[in-house]
Each structure stands twice: as structure tokens, then as C-alpha cells.
Amino acid sequence: MKTELAKIKGFIFDMDGTLVLGDKNNKGLLPIPGAIEFTQKLKKAGIEFSVFTNGTTKTPAEYADVLAALGFPITSKNMLTPVSGALECFIAAGYKRVMVLGGKGIIEPLEAAGIEVVPNELGTKADAVLAGWYKEVKFSDFEAACDAVWAGASFFSCSQSIFFATANGRALGTSRAISAVVRDLTSCDVEVVGKPSKFAFQACLKSLGLEANQVSVVGDDVELEVTMANQQGALSIAVATGIEDIDFLKNQSGFKLADHILPNVESLMMAWEEVRANA
User: Fold this and answer.
1) CATH code, domain with 272
2) Contact present, 157 and 180 (Cβ < 8 Å)
3) Are residues 96 and 55 in the same domain?
4) Which of the listed residues 146, 170, 192 is the one where a domain comes to its end?
5) What single-letter DSSP state applies at residue 236?
6) What predicted TM-score, i.e. pTM, was given to this entire model?
7) Phi and psi at residue 148, to the nearest 5°
8) Would you tell me how many other CB atoms lie within 10 Å of the CB of residue 114?
9) Which of 101, 127, 130, 200 is the most exposed place for a label (fewest CB within 10 A)?
10) Which residues on neighbouring strands pair with residue 98, listed in sequence order?
11) Residues β-bridged to residue 171
12) Same structural domain for residues 182 and 211?
């Protein structure tokens, strides 16, 4: 691990279960021991890092403000959400009109990038439909989304992960649940724009200004951070402060098995400091 860490020039951190824990509504966030200290040391050493959450209740700038208020040295430039991945995808595909099953955390960044967010109404023309965190989803939203898909719109999900980590254990996300309804009714394909997609990873690399083999992805979810890192050629580090314990993390295979498994980010900080001390 030390040899690999010595080559790392940047880190991509998950948020919930890796750096912080909050409640099932993603409120009351508290830092996990060692997380603030490690990111502060990285900042002081000139090592780039980004934070990527699959949550969409806030804009990237709002998430950055919340973390900064806790003491994390982060700005909106290095705070990413599935909208960051969606923009990578939509701009490349030439999508200009998008129907959103979600709130301002998705809508505002899309509009700021020049993409028209169309109303969730029957008969609305859309190039794509994007589902995110949306506990307020109504039957009329499903009708409009299915109608748009039947008319030719592509369907995207911010996250297909079932759970996310909270201080009280695992909590259900909404993107996958919403996607399941639309897919069941329309038989459409569902493409992910958040972790572990290539779109999410590309957005992270752009924010860091680095190549895949220069970064490490650190997270608590084998389906998200570990899989993304392994598929895209980055160093994967799993921590046991989120949805699963050490034994579960070790009992994986293929893309789900992390290069290194640690109890927490504090352990990673200690390993990183040792590498720097011996450099």
C-alpha cells in the first residue's frame, strides 16, 4: 500500500459513511474522526482532493458550504454530485431538454450549464429524463416520465445504489426506487450518471486535473466507490465506517474487492503520513 500511496497525487472521497454521517434525510452531518484532519493535511501539502456524493438534495455549492462549515477545506470547485456526471454525459450527447424527477439540487446546476429543465407534464418533449433524490415524487411525475420515455427520451438515474450510510445505519435512497418504476412500466434502459459511472469519474478527474492512475478513490460502498475505481484504473480504498463492516468488505471479488481495506480514513491518514515521512 505504501508504494502505491507514494504515487498518488489526488484523492476522490465519498461523503456519507466516509467523511461524515448524518440522518436519513442527510441532515445533522457530523465528521467521522480523522476526516477533517486528513483533508486539512492534504490541502496543506498541496495534494488535490474532491468529494463526490450521490446525493442530490443540495447543489454542489451547497454541499461544499455544509462541509466547509464543519471544517473541511473544500470549495464548490471540488464538490461533485451526480449532476456533475450528468453534465459530462448530456453535453457530449447534445441533450438540451431534460425532465427532472428531483429538486433544485439537480435543476439549478443543469440550468446554470444551459440545459433546459422541462416541466413534468404529459406531452412534454424531452431528450432525457433524470431521476435523483425525490421523496416528493407523485404519480403524475411517473406518468410524465414514462410518456417522455415512450416518446424517445433516454432515461438516467443519479444512483442505482439501494442504501446510503447514516449515523443510524443504512437508509434507502430514492433514485433506484424511482428508476425501478419507470423501467418496469416502459422496459427502458437505465443509465447511471453518478457513481460508479465513467461520467462521474471523468468529472472527478477534471476537477482534480489528474489522470486515473494518479488518484485514489476512497469510500464505504463496494458497489459505488470501489467499483468505480477498479473499473477506471484508479487505486481503490474501502473504509468500514459506512454501510458495511470489514468482514463484508474483505469478502468481495472482482471489481467489488478494494485494493486496500481500512477501518477508517484516520488509518489512511496515518499510512499517508508515514509514506511522506519516508519519502
Assistant:
1) 3.40.50.1000
2) no
3) no
4) 192
5) E
6) 0.94
7) -65, -40
8) 9
9) 127
10) 117, 128
11) 164
12) no
